[in-house]
Design brief:
The structure holds two protein chains of two kinds. By secondary structure, chain A is α/β, with parallel strands linked by helices. Chain A is 46% helix and 21% strand. Chain B has one domain. Chain B has a two-stranded antiparallel ribbon. Chain B is mainly alpha-helical. Classes of the chains: A alpha/beta, B mainly alpha.
Chain lengths: 329, 507
């Protein structure tokens, strides 16, 4: 084979390989090349962990690799996000899975060390409305009782964190009705429930899945316009409409996968694969089975893409800005 | 919910059918307890995929056996090499390690194991009998009461530094200051983090613990040939089975100490957010105050070892009670257990004892079986474990440092935490060389954040009104008891002097 022929052979071979590989390459062929690392900015064993396991357990079949969670709790999620932005590779193999509401409110209260444009959410998993709940032993039996009592004295209200959508809901309700509330941050859903159950505080606010169906707890109202969990929160008042709060449905738990903007821009094909395979999980019966088996509520699973995540983030940020003074020291 | 004896026996026999899961869980528990950093909670989290795939009763029995055994295992390095692997064992070396240095390591291990097993058995049976009442404790102990409970523990700083009060208080306040590093519990505002993100979630406990105790100890022992004193080395060489039996006998002689400190642990275990560290510090402090020979504490005194070991094993059964009855986990490990049970759709509450007795009562019968198994398995090993002490320090010190650095890394997987351990090791070394008590620093580090948490919560609830601290009957009773326990040593000395003066006068 002379030089000319050899060059022709090599060119044709390269062109043939490129042509054969093009459709696949355009859809992130060869991606993922390794395990997808998922940064979770809360402790292992919590709600985000459970949701991630349910979703990731099915998503891995579509991606062909495992999704490995790493937990970075601390300072209301700030540690996890700062770590993600500092350590994650820009190659679409590193994602973050967080609860958009409280974590975005964090940035309202105190800006992070990175630019907020450097990451975005692209795959919303659920929309868990905020709720008001009391102990069954409480003398207050309805939300009207709570409002009436709150006009007589300052009520202590347990919440996971001050900068939390559920806390915002309570502040808006207090603002509209003239009741007086004192938010008591108890660091996490379990502690918030415990505070109410043991009678240390008058009532609590949390994402409804963290409160409903628990022994000794009664959900009085939802910061929503419809009750998607009537069996677990029977008789819960739809606070937004009933008390004319003038706010959009307030999902206190809105878990979503996020990614570094640089990664999505650098590898659009890979990012598309993540988005498209992620959306397929919602229609997979195995996911529904995992959610219901884990005592989750399928009705609250809310598939959403970039636009839905953006809308949620904007709504919460606007409301957070309005009440910023009450959420900070 | 009251348990019939016949039903109990039948459940006990049924639980024996789970031997195939109890035995490996027990062995694993001893191992993870003995390795600093590998707590039961961490291990159960790592093994979540396994436990989630098990039947709920099997999973629960596995977790309970692992948890129980890890509590006992944590005492081994605390006694032999001054490394409390978990915060719950932080008070164990106060008297355990001096015994080991004096060549009584085998005896100390036997005391620790016997006290742990006895306390575990006593409190598990007590828990089964007292479930309806103990489940109500959480309803009566809120932030205000917990502030006083924390102060009981913190007052140990003054107690253990009786030799040099000023230095003791400086060390204690230094520990409290370190404990306040990190984001505050109300506004999540970082304080004293020096810009380190890794310190936002407070100073990591395990690296601080192993640094203060183990790494500083390694620096100290490297200056000698062995950990053992000269007399201790001779004693250790000639030790047969005698010290094991001596240890068992010592514990049985102090049976009252075992009973009351274990029951104290049970009650503290029931309180959500409290835990083995608080229980062991409070038990040690109270044991010293009530003792006729308080000056012997800290020198290798038997009751000083029995008290924390009994109390931290008493916590084990206590922590399960609020979880099973009201769905409120008593501690971190119980919280992980809750995740597993919730995953299987188990509904907590008194009904659980009727609907799924193998989970509810089975947890306690599994605990009983684990303790019996531990007693049979581990006591004969005391003789062999104690030989660790004769390893020359040129080998021992690097091994200690390597193990502790790995242990520091494990809980959060941050390399930063290994640096924290070394920094605390240096602080501990300086403290030891200048006569400051490292345990006093550690008490501040462990209990400081908890005290702050309860204090800020109480103040926030009362909207800044300090009189809230004296607003509850139980709280006020606890304040009086705290005051009495602080005044007791001085009062005892005064009465003693008065008595001897009277005797002299009559002569």
């Amino acid at each position: 084979m002379n030089n000319q022929n050899r060059r022709l052979f090599l060119k044709l071979t390269a062109a043939g390989l490129a042509a054969a590989g093009m459709p696949a390459l355009s859809y992130g062929a060869g991606f993922p090349e390794r395990t997808i690392k998922v940064f979770i900015p809360t402790r292992a064993g919590g709600g985000a962990d459970r949701n991630f396991r349910n979703f990731g357990g099915v998503w891995k079949d579509y991606l062909g690799v495992e999704l490995e969670p790493s937990f970075y709790p601390g300072a209301a999620g700030r540690v996890g996000y700062e770590t993600y932005m500092g350590k994650a590779e820009d190659d679409c193999h590193d994602l973050i899975f967080g609860n958009m509401g409280p974590e975005v409110l964090n940035w309202v209260v105190k800006k992070p060390n990175f630019s907020l444009d450097d990451y975005f959410y692209f795959l919303m998993v659920d929309a868990d409305p905020g709720c008001v709940f009391i102990s069954e032993k409480s003398s207050m039996k309805t939300l009207d009782d709570v409002v009436a009592e709150g006009k007589k004295r300052t009520l202590t209200v347990a919440t996971s964190r001050l900068a939390h959508p559920a806390s915002l809901g309570m502040l808006v309700l207090a603002n509209k009705t003239g009741m007086k509330v004192n938010l008591i941050p108890l660091s996490g859903g379990k502690n918030t429930r415990n505070g109410v159950l043991t009678g240390e505080v008058d009532l609590g606010v949390l994402p409804v899945t963290t409160a409903m169906g628990r022994k000794g707890i009664k959900v009085l109202g939802l910061f929503d316009e419809r009750n998607l969990v009537p069996e677990d929160a029977p008789g819960a008042v739809l606070i937004n409409t009933e008390y004319k709060l003038g706010i959009p449905p307030l999902a206190a738990g809105a878990r979503a996968f996020g990614i570094k903007t640089a990664a999505a821009e650098k590898y659009p094909d890979r990012f598309d694969k993540l988005r498209e395979t992620g959306m397929k999980v919602f229609t997979d019966p195995a996911y529904k089975e995992a959610v219901t088996k884990g005592k989750g509520s399928w009705a609250l699973i809310a598939p959403g893409g970039i636009a839905e995540c953006r809308k949620y983030v904007d709504n919460i940020t606007a409301l957070g800005q309005e009440y910023r003074g009450l959420l900070t020291g | 919910m009251a348990l019939d004896f016949g039903v109990f026996v039948s459940l006990f026999v049924d639980t024996l059918d789970y031997w195939w899961i109890i035995i490996p869980a027990t062995l694993l528990g001893i191992l993870v307890g003995a390795i600093p950093g590998f707590s039961a909670a961490n291990t159960i989290i790592i093994l979540l995929p396994l436990t989630l795939s098990m039947e709920p009763a099997t999973g629960m029995i596995f977790m309970v056996a692992l948890y129980t055994a890890s509590r006992l295992g944590a005492g081994i390095p605390a006694i032999l090499v001054n490394i409390p692997g978990t915060a719950g064992a932080a008070a164990t070396p106060l008297d355990g390690y001096p015994m080991a240095v004096a060549g009584r390591g085998q005896q100390a291990l036997a005391i620790s194991f016997t006290a742990s097993v006895a306390a575990g058995l006593i409190t598990t049976v007590a828990a089964l009998i007292l479930i309806p009442w103990l489940s109500q404790v959480a309803f009566h102990l809120h932030s205000v009461e917990m502030i006083v409970v924390m102060l009981f523990g913190i007052s140990l700083i003054a107690t253990i530094s009786a030799g040099d009060t000023i230095k003791g208080l400086i060390a204690g306040f230094f520990g409290l200051m370190i404990g306040y590093i990190g984001a505050d519990v109300v506004y999540e505002a970082p304080r004293g983090t020096f810009g380190f993100l890794e310190l936002y979630d407070k100073v990591p406990l395990i690296p601080a613990l192993v640094g203060l105790f183990a790494i500083s100890e390694a620096f100290v022992v490297i200056e000698r040939n062995t950990i053992l004193s000269e007399q201790g080395a001779v004693k250790q060489q000639h030790a047969g089975w005698g010290p094991t039996f001596e240890g068992i006998r010592d514990t049985l002689v102090h049976w009252k100490e075992v009973v009351w400190t274990s029951l104290l642990g049970l009650v503290i275990g029931v309180i959500p957010g409290a835990g083995a560290a608080i229980a062991s510090f409070v038990a040690y402090q109270q044991s010293r105050i009530l003792s006729k020979t308080p000056e012997l504490y800290g020198t290798g005194h038997v009751p000083g070892l029995i008290a924390p070991e009994s109390a931290n094993n008493g916590v084990t059964s206590g922590t399960l009670i609020p979880l099973l009855i009201i769905g409120v986990p008593g501690g971190a490990t119980a919280a992980i257990m809750a995740v597993v049970l919730e995953y299987h759709g188990v509904a907590f509450g008194p009904d659980l004892f009727d609907s799924q007795p193998m989970i509810a009562y089975g947890s306690f019968t599994a605990m009983l079986i684990t303790y019996i198994l531990l007693g049979l398995m581990i006591l004969p090993l005391t003789r062999y474990f104690s030989h660790v002490m004769v390893v020359p320090t040129v080998y021992m010190a690097p091994i200690l440092i390597a193990f502790t650095l790995v242990g520091s890394f494990v809980p959060r997987a941050y390399v930063f935490d290994m640096g924290v351990a070394i920094v605390f090791g240096v602080i501990g070394y300086i403290a030891r060389r200048t006569g400051y008590h490292v345990a006093a620093i550690l008490i501040g580090v462990i209990l400081g954040p908890l005290l702050e948490n309860y204090f800020l919560r109480a103040l926030r609830i009362s909207q800044g009104d300090l009189t809230v601290l004296f607003s509850s009957a139980i709280g006020n009773t606890l304040w009086v008891l705290l005051l009495l326990s602080l005044l007791a040593p001085g009062l005892k000395r005064y009465l003693g002097r008065l008595k001897s003066a009277k005797t002299n006068a009559t002569k």
